[in-house]
Structure formats: C-alpha cells, structure tokens
Design brief:
The complex is a heterodimer. Chain A is of the alpha/beta class. Helix content of chain A is 33%, strand content 26%. Chain A has one domain: Rossmann fold. Chain A has a six-stranded mixed β-sheet with strand order 6-7-8-3-9-10, sandwiched between helices. A four-stranded antiparallel β-sheet of chain A has the order 2-1-4-5, covered by helices on one side. Chain A is globular. Chain B is 34% helix and 21% strand. Chain B has ten helices and nine strands. In chain B, strands 5-6-7-3-8-9 form a six-stranded mixed β-sheet, sandwiched between helices. In chain B, helix 4 packs parallel to helix 6 (191-203), helix 5 (161-174) crosses helix 6 (191-203) and helix 6 runs parallel beside helix 7. Chain B starts with 20 loop residues before the first strand and ends with a helix. The chains are: A alpha/beta, B alpha/beta. At the A-B interface, strand 1, helix 2 and helix 3 of A face helix 7, strand 9, helix 9 and helix 10 of B.
C-alpha cells in the first residue's frame, strides 16, 4: 500500500434497475485517488454528481460495478473491499471504518443519549461511562441536557444532524466517511462540528468527506477531488 | 478506572472467524418429487409447485452461514421458504436433504439433521431457542408464565427450585413482564406480553442461537418497537446469535446486520442489510424494497 490508508483505482458504479425494465443509471466512473493516514480528502461537486455514491461503495452500502478499493487495516494485510464478503465488511465497520450519514436513523424507544452512546455500548463500555461520554459530546454540540432523554425523532433537522454527528464521532474509527453531515446546520453549529473534526484529525483519524459548502471543504481538506456528472474532473 | 476508548474493542481480530452455524444445500420437498422439480420451480418461474409431479418445493439450494454474536435476517413473502428453514433447524420438521453444522454441537462435526431423538432434544433444550409467530404454538397458555420458563429450565437440567424461580422471574422482569403476572396464565396476556414470555423462555437456557419466526407480526407498531428494542438489548448483552425471519423489511433493518432474501424457496440475494435496502441487485429485492413505505 506504500503507506496509504485507502487506495481507490478506477472505481465505477452504475445501477441496473430491473423494475424499470433494465434501465442503467450511472453514478460515477473511473474514479481514482489515494489517501494517507490522518489525511482529510474532500469530494466536491454539484448534487447528483456521484459524490455520496463513492462513499457508499467504500462502506459497502453500494456494490461497486468496476474497479478496486484497497484498505489498509490496523493490523494485517491490505483488503480489497470490492472482493470482500459481507461478513468481512461488517467486521471492518465500527473500529476501522465509520460512516456519518446525512440523516439520523433513530431507533425505537432509544433516547438521544443512548443512541449516541450506542457505539460505545457495542464496544463493551459500561453503560454509565458511555452515557457520560455521550452527554459531554452532546453538550459540546449544543444539545442541552433537557433533550438527552428525548426521542430524536421529534427534534428539528439541525438537532438531528448534531445527534447524528455525535454518534459517529464518539468512538473514532480509523477511517471516517462523511456524507454531507452539516447540511442542515447554521454557521455557529458548523463551527463546532469543524472543531470536532479537526480534533479527530489531530488524533490521527483519516477522513473522506462530501460537503456541498466549498468554504467548509477548503477549510477541512488537505486535498480535494471534484466530480462532474459522474466523472472526476479535478 | 479509565478506559482507552479507541481501543475498547473486545473483538480485535478482523479475520473472519469460524461460523457458528453452516447450512449446506438445505432442501425440503412435500410430495414424491421427480427429476424436473428443481427445474420447474423457483423465483424465475414464480412457483413452488412442480407442474410435472405436483410436489411442493418449500426450499432448495439453501446455503448460508451465521457467525457468533451475529444477527442474520431472512426476508421474503409467503411461500419464500423462510419459515421452513427455521423449522428444519429447530428440528420441528425433517429436511428432505441437506446438512447443517452447529459449532456448539460436537464442535461442528455432526450434521444436526442426522441426529437421534436424544441429540435432537439436546439441541432444542440446550443450544437453541425459538420464538414463534403464534404464541399458542410456542407457549403452554394454560400453565403459568413462570411455569413455562421453569419447564424449559427443567429440560435443561436445572434442578434447584429456588434457582429456577429466580431465573424465571429475572428473565420475565428483563422482558418487562410484571413480576406479579409470573403466576398468571399467558392465555390472559396481551399479544405483546405473550411474545415477551416466549422470548424469555427461549433465552432461559442461554442458547448459542435463537430463531425468531415472524416474532412481531400481528403486534401493534408501538408494541413491536418495544419487543424489537428488548431483543436488541438482550442480544447486545448476551452475544447470542439470532436468525430473524420476517416479511417486514423494517424489522429486518432494525435488527440484522446481514440479510438473506428468499423467494419461492430459493435465496435470491444476500448481503449487508443496508446494501440490500439501498442497492438491491436482484429484481425481486428491488421490487420488495420499492414496495415499502417507510
């Protein structure tokens, strides 16, 4: 891997929609890039250019149509993700690769603080300690204590996004994929998220982020690739 | 006591470990069968019935694995074969052919479909648990809730009455069944509470694998949410492996990490649950996912 954390070679994704009589829709094609450990790479492009699809191919939510994704885990040999089994991909999620989605996925009967604490609980951290961590992070993101026992499904879009970010950052993965996580945030809250991301970066987290806000992209990224209509133009 | 959070991962190894259960070529046919049965049935032909001999192919070519601590979803509509698979595993019915190996049963060396009745009872009483869609099929409605669990513990060689009672009440409490109802008959419980007693019963003997067969079908949405939430918590705490069978994608999405999609007795697609939901590859999966409304 020559010291790279992630190497993407000529990656392509198209969708074959059987229910639309075999219609093919191209998400992106021929995308290549390399990221070093601790680097922040941004993906720029207008809506529909294929940015999120790249992240989802890496995470395994989408099945890549062509190309290769090489990932260097903490220990052991590099993995080629497009050829990994579902179980292997599941094992990489969590500690190795994390994903911040655009929208929060609430769980039934799960309070805000328990939702944010979930990654820690899954890692074996005791409930009380996990909750404390969650509360601290929620506090920093401006979600006050009166909301910690609330159900996020009732929150505003911006509040939900902040809960989502807290959940994604509470247990730092080695590679974090960010899919427009700040789109619903005002500038004050964005600034808090930027600070959190910069802390994660300082702690060595490698990041690949899609942001539609060019200023934010410039602020956070060490380098940027740009997509236009599914092709890498820069 | 401080914890290194970034490394507080009890499961450091990334190599895929040995599976807990391996199912090979599971095949269940009702009827005599002929050489054309497989060719004349399946998802492309949209039928389970062989038009040559009239046999019903409930499931065929079923191959899958489940890993320790994993939750595997199996989704499909009526006739997909998903319940047949569970019933074969739990030894309710006998498969026509196929093999299955459970790591906890003789170190995975013995085909669980080829056991004698004593071994079969051992599998059911010590190693596996089952929750059925209809509580009347999974519980004795006219013995007490506590009694239902005690019966299962006795089958698993528990002998001390006080310990049995303590475990039963602990489990029911964990399933949010009020202690004062422990000595009532499940016949008088609501559907949701009956299911929770079933789950408590399935967990009683600390099995390595639990089979959930349409566990929430027929329950009100809010009750469903409660049951699902409990199952998730208990699974997290105990690390038990679970196979969740449901026709409801919402339930599958909430519980399982990997999912199998079945149609007309065959597996048509398998993968990570979010991949199945967001990038379904097979035509039937695409149809299923586009038919949901959440």
């Amino acid at each position: 891997m020559n010291g790279f954390h992630l190497k993407v070679n000529n990656l392509s994704k198209h969708f074959l929609l059987h229910i639309l009589k075999g219609k093919q829709v191209r998400a992106f094609e021929g995308v290549s890039f390399k990221i070093k450990p601790g680097e922040f790479m941004g993906i720029a492009g207008v809506s529909g250019s294929g940015k999120s699809s790249i992240l989802k191919c890496i995470y395994g939510t989408y099945v890549a149509s062509d190309g290769e994704i090489f990932y260097q885990p903490e220990q052991g040999q590099p993995r080629e993700l497009t050829n990994s089994s579902a179980r292997q991909l599941a094992r990489l999620r969590g500690h190795e690769i994390g994903f911040v989605s655009q929208f929060l996925h609430p769980l039934p009967r799960t309070t805000t603080q328990d939702l944010v604490a979930m990654p820690l609980l899954l890692a074996g951290v005791a409930k009380a300690e996990a909750r404390l961590q969650a509360q601290e992070l929620l506090g920093r993101l401006g979600i006050g204590s009166e909301l910690w026992d609330g159900y996020p499904v009732f929150f505003s879009g911006g509040e939900q996004q902040r809960v989502n970010i807290a959940q994604a950052l509470i247990r730092r993965p080695r590679l974090l994929l960010l899919d427009e996580p700040t789109s619903a945030l005002d500038s004050q809250n964005q600034a808090v998220v930027v600070a959190l991301l910069e802390e994660a970066k300082a702690a060595g987290v490698t990041m690949l982020g899609v942001f539609h806000d060019p200023a934010l992209l410039q602020r956070l990224s060490d380098k940027v690739i740009t997509l236009s209509r599914g092709k890498q133009v820069a | 006591m401080s914890i290194e959070l970034e490394t507080a991962n009890p499961d450091q190894s990334l190599e895929v470990e040995a599976p807990l259960l391996v199912v090979e070529n599971l095949f269940k046919r009702y009827g005599k069968g002929c050489e054309r049965c497989l060719e004349l049935t399946g998802p492309d032909l949209e039928t389970n019935l062989c038009r040559n001999c009239g046999a019903l192919i409930a499931c065929a070519d079923v191959n899958f694995e489940i890993y320790p601590g994993e939750v595997l979803g199996v989704v499909g509509e009526s006739g997909s074969g998903k319940t047949t698979v569970l019933r074969c595993l739990y030894k309710d019915i006998e498969p026509t052919s196929g093999k299955a190996f459970l790591q906890a049963f003789n170190n995975g060396q013995t085909d669980i479909f080829q056991t004698n009745s004593q071994q079969a009872r051992y599998l059911q009483d010590f190693l596996m648990g089952m929750v059925r869609q209809n509580p009347a099929m999974g519980l004795r409605l006219h013995i007490t809730a506590g009694g239902n669990i005690a019966e299962r513990l006795l089958a698993a060689d528990w002998r001390t009455v006080s310990e049995i009672r303590e475990r039963s009440s602990g489990l029911l409490d964990r399933m949010e069944v009020p202690i004062k109802r422990m000595d009532d008959f499940p016949a008088f419980f609501s559907g949701g509470m009956q299911q929770r007693v079933q789950i408590a019963k399935a967990l009683a003997n600390q099995p390595v694998l639990i089979l959930l067969d349409e566990m929430t079908t027929g329950l009100d949405v809010s009750v469903q949410a409660g049951v699902i939430d409990l199952v998730k918590e208990v699974q997290r705490e105990s690390g038990v492996a679970i196979i969740v069978v449901s026709h409801d994608l919402g339930v599958i999405r909430l519980l399982s990490e990997r999912t199998l999609v079945m149609k007309n007795g065959r597996i048509v697609e398998s993968g990570l649950t979010d991949q199945i939901m967001e990038d379904p590859q097979h035509a039937y999966t695409q149809l299923l996912v586009s038919s949901t409304n959440y």
